Give the backbone structure.
Amino acid sequence: MPDPYQTLGISKTASAAEIKSAYRKLAKKLHPDVNPGRKDIEQKFKDVTAAYDLLSDTAKRARYDRGEIDAQGNERGFARGGADPFGGMGGRSRTTSRTYTGGAGGPFGAGGGMEDFFAEFFGSQGGARQGRGQAPRGSDITYALTVSFVEVCLGGRQRVTLKNRKTIDVNIPSGTEEGHKLRLRGQGAAGPGGDGDAIIEIHVEAHPYFTRKDNDIHLEVPVSLPEAILGASIKVPTLDGHVAVKVPKGANTGTTLRLKSKGIPRPHGEPGDMFVRLKVVLPEPPPADLADFIEKWAKKNAYDPRKKLGW
């Protein structure tokens, strides 16, 4: 077996934390469960596990550093194949290296082991998050749930019927976004190692008026020419009903009004805002008296809105 420090890719002065971190990275990459059928990878995994087993044991590491034992835990100074003073064969000490399978002092935390390691790195990918030799979980089942724009903004509840005909009320948190996934533990396919999960993928219906940016709501509101020029009080829709908004005198297309806290509520902190963008709309077709007035006005007032752009 090669030098354990080289096997883990660390220096001889590496701390216990550095040894553990190096092993975790290599174990994630080389574990046979994620490299099925690769004998070469399986051997590398055994090597890094044996290296970790030696270097994570303070006493063994000290003896190795002093040259008393080799990388496999063999006592140095005894010929291979011959008897040793401990009653074994081949110079093998009683503290031989082993394959790490978890435990309180292992690289995956107290009481953790390989199952917690794969739960951390591979999530719910069926048997991959099970330790080797454990029965696989059932597979996860994904469902698509279409929810109205207002409901994902304000939050609500939706009833979902699963493939086993079981119905469940799913809580839609306020501010849920397109593609958000809700996980229902143990509601997936059955398996010998436990049931999989149900994954509810949220799809949001488009709204005819509202659009969203983060936690803010945007709305374009048409106003008449008199309302824009003279000012007015108009009603506009919000997520939770209509409110009165004051159009300032001389408003124009693009004038934007801010309605504080009328956006998407947040579980913690201030809610978003609503931004109302005004759009001046002329009657169709323009009435004759308005056309006559504009014609007379235009003769007395030379106004070119494109002049500001340098056109």
